[in-house]
Specification:
- The protein has about 220 residues and is an alpha+beta fold.
- It has one domain (about 5-25, about 40-215).
- About 20% of the residues lie in helices and about 35% in strands.
- A hairpin with an 8-residue loop joins strand 7 (about 140-155) and strand 8.
- The longest helix is centred in the last third of the chain and has 11 residues, at about 200-210.
- It is globular.
Length: about 220
């Protein structure tokens, strides 16, 4: 797989915002008075022959922390949904790659976490992440901060056609798994349900707490 293709597969992010669903919930009035935070659900879409070093379930468990709302700056909220999966891709040359992914959604933010063991250091990825990318350091590891764009999808309650359009800004943080930046990466993405610009400080707070708990993370000396 070419370098550019690796980058595209690693950093593509699509956020789906479902307009009108809150209104439907209010109309049906079926929400219990007291509901606890969501627990991780998982699905495995990868074949046994193409397992990743870390699973989507492990990423979800690490991301779905009790203090995640506080790290995001929304301490009164809790996880609404939480899930992990392994998605397998087959390239033109027959090579199979697996991308473990996790997502936790709150009322204000959605946070996504993925892992890649492809031989593509963060230092080389910077050239392919578009304009505005910033080189950073997270806990002694090379990192790149950049923006993506979500897609907004709305559904009509009267059964009409769904409509889609540009959504809000997603802030994405690509971090090397080891201090030598030898190829493996983790990526954190946050975006807001109201399409406002996410807080970069919240993204870094989550990164500094979650990344050291992940399998494959090597702390700096």
């Amino acid at each position: 797989m070419g370098t550019a293709a690796q980058v595209v597969s690693a950093v593509a992010t699509v956020g789906v915002l479902l307009g009108g669903m809150w209104l439907l919930a209010d109309l049906l009035d079926t929400t219990p008075e007291s509901v606890g935070p969501a627990v991780c659900s998982s699905s495995d879409d990868a074949s046994p022959a193409a397992r990743a070093k870390v699973s989507g379930a492990q990423l979800c468990t690490a991301l779905n922390r009790a203090d995640l709302p506080k790290l995001l700056g929304t301490p009164t909220e809790q996880a609404v949904t939480a899930s992990g999966s392994e998605n397998e891709s087959t390239w033109f040359d027959g090579t199979k790659t697996v991308t473990p992914e996790a997502s936790v959604e709150l009322d204000t933010y959605t946070v996504e976490l993925s892992a890649s063991d492809q031989d593509l250091p963060v230092a080389e990825s910077v050239d392919y992440l578009g304009t505005g990318v910033e080189t950073r350091t997270v806990l002694g590891h090379a990192a790149a901060l950049y923006s993506g764009r979500t897609i907004s999808i709305s559904f009509r309650l009267d059964g009409g056609d769904a409509q889609s359009g540009p959504g809000g800004v997603a802030r994405q943080l690509l971090v090397a798994t080891d201090p030598k930046d030898s190829g493996g990466t983790f990526e954190l993405v946050i975006y807001r349900q109201d399409s406002q610009i996410p807080d970069d400080e919240a993204l870094f707070r989550v990164a500094e707490k979650v990344l050291p708990t992940l399998p494959g993370w090597k702390p700096a000396a």
